[in-house]
Design goal:
The complex is a heterodimer of chains A (487) and B (667). By secondary structure, chain A is mainly alpha-helical. Chain A contains 20 helices and two strands. Classes of the chains: A mainly alpha (487), B mainly alpha (667). Chain B: Keywords: Membrane, Transmembrane, Transmembrane helix.
Chain lengths: 487, 667
């Protein structure tokens, strides 16, 4: 490595990572300010974070349409990165909105929450923008370590502690695979820049090079763990169930999208020559993941656990689009991850409201009668469930439509059929919630909670985001298509 | 140019959302009603502005596609959310939003105090939204969304009094019959899309694109198949033989609904669709003949039933079916302008008639309620002599009746006479023309008869309402009377925009404005007709003669009604006694419902019961439950692998990695 320090500084263009800088600085500032904020007023930190998140979003979109590399080609600002950054910022914004009400109720309203959410977001954004294995790893670890903290944030809850611990141990385990894979690839190619690796793949023998092959799959394993693809999914239900609900919402949307972002960039930019290999693997994993997720979700009464398994299934649907490798399929992933962020966090926002302190039960049965006693809330939940189930005219439907048509275009008819069958099976457990809300008489009065303004805002945004792209898909889809064009 | 066209459907949609979501909380009827009416009125204003802009353009440029956004794309298939503004859609916009506004205003008074007031206005606005999509959509798919939307609203509003079994049944009947038609619409769309794409590589469902490529379509053959499919859709929505029986039952809905949906707008959608694709229909002589014959037969057949009904709304319902028959007759003989003309004038006078009957029913209902009578408020045998209690209602009702009966000078005369003349003189159907004209003329005779029978039985003669109730009869409030007056004026003067050339020349060269206005829309169809048929020459004397015949027919019908129901009311009873079987058959609507029940509904039910008890419960349920058990068991097994132990999870991951890498290393 012949790095000339003076040359290195010339390549630095801070604008490329300006959104990350904004959130990092804000996060550190909030940590300091937090000391002086009384515990009843931590909500102000949420609003401050939200302002920062929106600001970062504005800064990020100004780069749309341009491709600028910086830090000696280790990060890039392109449409692909910006699209994903929007997803992360959205997930973070919604999570921040629904946090205060929950954390106050659970008596764990510690101000560090918001800086940690911001740091997680920075990590995810780095992952999407990274064009160097080291930057990828840096982003991944920043995200992961913050997530371990968030999962175990409710210190007084055994379940939350368990979630944090499990996530940490298994996460560390998967990082081992990832890092080993990276090391092997570095060993073969002698560089960590993904553009350079890409140009060397064919030269060193492609799939015929065993070390490269093992390296690719080991690295893939690390990301498959993050997106909770079977058989690397087992941590998901335990962690999602134990973590504070707003953080579960955040985890199910943001980091999953980050995993997909990096996987897409790696496989489509670095390893297109080995598509035959990874495409087959993703085919099988898509089927496995969808099936395991959906079929287990069928048996769940606990709604958080049900959504955890459902989130595994949704990663499976995205893998269907991924396996196809076509523009329709990959832009479908971007579309789907964005829609999924809306609908899934929306559903979790409702769970945040319905839950009681300590979350003693949280089963589907608790929703009986909600349709009559809280009609608007039930309507919002219905929209989320319909969208998750993939019914028209919601975003979930259009998303699945594009994912599966990608598979059909690539000739994977059977994969599309299995996907549709899985989607049909999933309708059962989503509709069950709706059936309970509208058709079962409820004993609960639902009078123990009020909907605070931030949660109401999150619900409205999520419902709109789950519906509007379903009616006007082109609104989002054109951006998703432009985003994947670059990679 | 037409940048704000998207506002037209948007206003009613907003009205629907506000009333539908918040109506229950608003409670105040004035606010809810005003939101509903204002939403449609705003659309009307924008429609008028659009219309003015459109006629400002040279006539060749009066067809503008306004794309809002790409709706969906999949391979060669593309559908936009886009509007087509041309003379035809603009005319429909004015009719739908104009009459829609009046009926919304009327409903504020009519629905006063009804349970679910907000629900009514929400549905009504949703209906207007769907109808506007239907008439402005620039492609078949968007039109179909509107087509289904109006069907849904029709179902919801027919069943508005859902606690009444008859209302629920009527709603279901309308829905099922419409579904049969929709099936035709879809098949037509698929065939059209597929055929044009396969043979010419043009994959489109957009109307202007289709019109541009109209000359690629052959005469007959596949076009016959396509257009017959579409026509099946039209018979369902527009209540033509054989799918007409739902419309009379649809009178179970509140009267404003009957006026707006089941007379003025939705039921004309089939006519509109044929007009929209006139360039296709004209290319199939077989379809044109079918349309003409079905139209003429429906006009005649429904009129016969109308002569013997005693329920005021049922008479109007059969009259609607009959008048829709005229419109299809016009379409079938290639007189597209005349058909659209009749669509418009019919919307005026039939809306007026329905709203007037609503005012009568309202008043009757109140009066009967006062004396605790359970007499039927809609039965004309309980009415009579109402003109002195409700002079305004009577006056407007009479104007509209004269219009529909075809008395010269009123709107109905011009449009109906144009259709009859074209049925006689069109170059398409040769010797069949006499039959078409004959059926139309007979129907006109009966129309004049039953409409004046209705007027005489309701407003003239002695008052037959239960003793003591008559002093509670009263004129309706202004909010109800005002729309009646506007519609009566329109029924009176609305015909002058389509003055026949014969009369126009006579009074100093007043042109047929409507024909000129609609000309670009039907240019392709008319050019095709010019090129492919031999125009026989008809003398002016013949045209004058037929026009005179129409007038005589109308007068005879009215006089007959006068003699039978005012001068010597004993004659109908004698007639009924002399021909009991005929009267029973007509009174019972020729037993068509019973025939359908016997031939279609009951066999279907039996088959359904067999499939349910025999096939479904034993075979399908067995399989489904079996699969469900297997699935559940599978889910259970996976769940047991979820032990909660970290080392198990780690093993699972390691296992995954080893299998994956092992497979690729040793394959």
């Amino acid at each position: 490595m012949d790095i000339n320090v003076a040359q290195l500084f010339q390549t630095i263009n801070l604008n490329v990572i300006m959104p990350e800088v904004i959130l990092s600085v804000l996060g550190m500032a909030l940590l300091l300010v937090n000391v002086f904020v009384p515990s009843k007023s931590k909500g102000y930190l949420a609003w401050l974070s939200l302002i920062g998140i929106i600001g970062a979003g504005f800064v990020a979109v100004t780069g749309w349409g341009t491709t600028v590399s910086s830090f000696n080609d280790s990060v890039v600002q392109d449409n692909f990165a910006i699209f994903f950054k929007m997803i992360f910022l959205l997930a973070a914004g919604l999570a921040v909105l629904i946090s205060d009400q929950y954390m106050s109720r659970e008596d764990c309203n510690h101000g560090e929450l918001y800086p940690i959410i911001l740091f997680t977001t920075v990590g995810m954004m780095l992952m999407a923008a990274a064009t160097d294995l080291m930057t990828i790893f840096l982003g991944l670890e920043l995200m992961s370590i913050s997530l371990y903290v968030l999962a175990g944030f409710n210190r007084d809850s055994i379940k939350s502690n368990e979630a944090g611990m499990k996530y940490f141990l298994l996460g560390a385990f998967s990082t081992g695979f990832l890092l080993y894979g990276m090391a092997l690839i570095y060993g073969v190619t002698g560089t960590t820049r993904i553009a350079k690796i890409a140009s060397l793949v064919v030269q060193v023998g492609g799939a015929g090079n065993t070390m490269l092959l093992i390296g690719m799959f080991l690295m893939l394993t690390g990301f498959l763990f993050k997106i909770a693809a079977a058989p690397f999914h087992m941590w998901t239900p335990d962690v999602y169930e134990g973590a504070p609900t707003p953080m579960t919402a955040f985890m199910s949307a943001g980091p999953k999208a980050a995993g997909f972002a990096t996987m897409l960039r790696l496989l489509l930019v670095v390893f297109p020559a080995m598509k035959a290999e990874w495409s087959d693997l993703l085919w099988i994993l898509a089927v496995l993941t969808m099936t395991v997720g959906n079929f287990t979700a069928l048996r769940q009464d606990n709604i958080k656990r049900m959504l955890a398994y459902s989130s595994i299934a949704h990663a499976g649907y995205c893998l269907v689009g991924f396996a196809s490798g076509t523009a329709t399929g990959t832009s479908g992933i971007l579309f789907y991850m964005l829609s999924y962020t809306f609908m899934n966090i929306g559903a979790f926002a409702v769970i945040v409201l319905i839950g009681k302190k300590g979350e003693p039960n949280g089963t589907v049965m608790d929703y009986a009668g909600l349709g009559h006693k809280r009609p608007l809330l039930a309507l919002a939940m219905t929209v989320f469930m319909f969208s998750l189930a993939g019914m028209p005219p919601t975003a979930g439907f259009i998303g699945k439509f594009y994912l599966f048509s990608g598979a059909v275009e690539a000739g994977y008819i059977w994969l599309a059929i299995i996907g549709v069958l899985n989607s049909a099976a999933s309708v059962y457990y989503y509709l069950r919630v709706i059936v309970f809300m509208y058709f079962k008489p409820g004993e609960e009065e639902f009078d123990w909670f009020t909907i605070s303004a931030p949660v109401a805002l999150a619900l409205v945004v999520s419902a709109a985001g789950s519906l509007i792209p379903g009616v006007i898909p082109s609104l989002l889809l054109q951006f998703a298509q432009q985003a994947v064009k670059l990679i | 140019m037409f940048d704000n066209v998207w506002l037209i459907p948007l206003f009613p949609l907003i009205g629907f959302l506000i009333n539908g979501l918040l109506g229950k909380k608003i409670k105040n009827e004035t606010i809810i009603g005003s939101i509903g009416a204002l939403a449609v009125f705003s659309s009307f204003i924008v429609s008028v502005m659009t219309f003015i802009k459109l006629i400002g353009l040279p006539s060749a440029e009066r067809s503008v596609n306004i794309k809002i956004f790409t709706w969906m794309t999949a391979g060669t298939f593309n559908a936009d959310i886009a509007f087509l503004i041309d003379p035809l859609s603009c005319l429909m916009l004015l009719v739908v939003t104009g009459i829609g506004t009046l009926i919304h205003i009327y409903s504020i008074g009519y629905m006063h105090g009804e349970e679910g007031f907000y629900r009514f206005f929400a549905y009504l606005n949703l209906f207007v939204f769907s109808m506007l999509l239907l008439v402005t959509g620039n492609n078949l798919l968007l039109m179909f969304v509107g087509w289904e939307g109006v069907g849904l609203c029709s179902y919801l509003l027919i069943g508005y009094y859902f606690h009444k079994k008859s209302a629920g049944d009527a709603g279901k009947k309308a829905f099922v019959m419409n579904r049969v038609g929709d099936f035709g619409f879809l098949l037509g769309t698929f065939t059209l899309f597929w055929w044009l794409g396969q043979t010419h590589g043009i994959w489109t469902i957009q109307f202007t694109e289709l019109a541009k490529n109209a000359n690629l379509f052959p005469t007959g053959g596949v076009v016959t198949v396509i257009t017959l499919c579409f026509f099946l859709g039209a018979t369902g929505k527009s209540a033509q033989i054989p799918l007409y029986t739902w419309l009379p039952d649809a009178m179970e809905g509140p009267t404003p609904v009957s006026a707006l949906i089941h007379a003025a707008t939705m039921v004309t959608a089939g006519v509109y669709m044929i007009a929209r694709m006139s360039y296709l229909f004209i290319r199939s002589p077989e379809t044109m003949m079918t349309v003409a014959v079905i139209g003429a037969c429906t006009a005649f057949f429904a009129a016969t039933i109308g002569t013997a009904q005693n329920d005021i709304k049922r008479v109007l319902a059969y009259s609607t079916v009959s008048q829709l028959g005229y419109m299809f007759l016009a379409m079938g003989v290639g007189a597209f302008t005349a058909g659209v003309f009749h669509l418009m004038t019919h919307a005026f006078f039939k809306a007026c008639l329905f709203l007037g009957s609503g005012a009568v029913i309202h008043s009757m209902h109140g009066a009967l309620h006062h004396v605790h009578s359970h007499d039927d408020a809609q039965d004309m045998r309980n009415m009579g002599g109402l003109s002195k209690y409700m002079p305004m209602t009577y006056g407007t009702f009479l104007v509209a009746t004269i219009a529909i009966a075809g008395i010269p000078g009123f709107s109905g005369f011009f449009s109906k006479d144009e259709i009859l003349w074209q049925a006689f003189a069109n170059p398409l159907h040769g010797s069949l023309n006499m039959l078409l004209w004959g059926l139309g003329a007979c129907a006109a005779l009966m129309t004049a008869f039953y409409m004046f029978r209705l007027v005489f039985m309701t407003f003239h003669g002695t008052c037959r309402i239960k003793a003591g109730a008559e002093k509670h009869l009263h004129e309706s409030p202004m909010v109800i009377v005002f729309p009646l007056i506007v519609l009566a004026i329109l029924s009176m003067v609305g015909g002058y925009i389509g003055l026949p050339k014969l009369i126009g020349d006579l009074v100093g060269g007043i042109p047929n404005y409507l024909e000129h206005y609609l000309e670009p829309v039907f240019a392709n169809a008319n050019a095709y007709m010019q090129a492919h048929t031999h125009h026989g020459h008809h003398s002016h004397a013949l045209e004058w003669g037929l026009m005179g015949t129409s007038v005589v027919i109308a007068v005879v019908g009215i006089c007959t009604a006068y003699v039978l129901y005012i001068a010597s009311p004993e004659i109908p009873k004698k007639f009924t006694a002399a021909f009991p079987a005929l009267h029973r058959a007509v009174y019972n609507k020729w037993y068509i419902d019973e025939l359908y029940d016997f031939m279609l509904v009951n066999p279907c039910k039996s088959l359904g019961r067999f499939l349910w008890k025999g096939f479904d419960v034993l075979v399908v349920d067995g399989i489904v439950n079996g699969v469900a058990h297997v699935v559940m068991a599978f889910g259970g097994v996976i769940r047991y692998m979820q032990t909660g132990q970290i080392y198990n999870y780690a093993w699972s991951m390691t296992f995954g990695v080893v299998v994956i890498i092992g497979y690729y290393l040793f394959k």
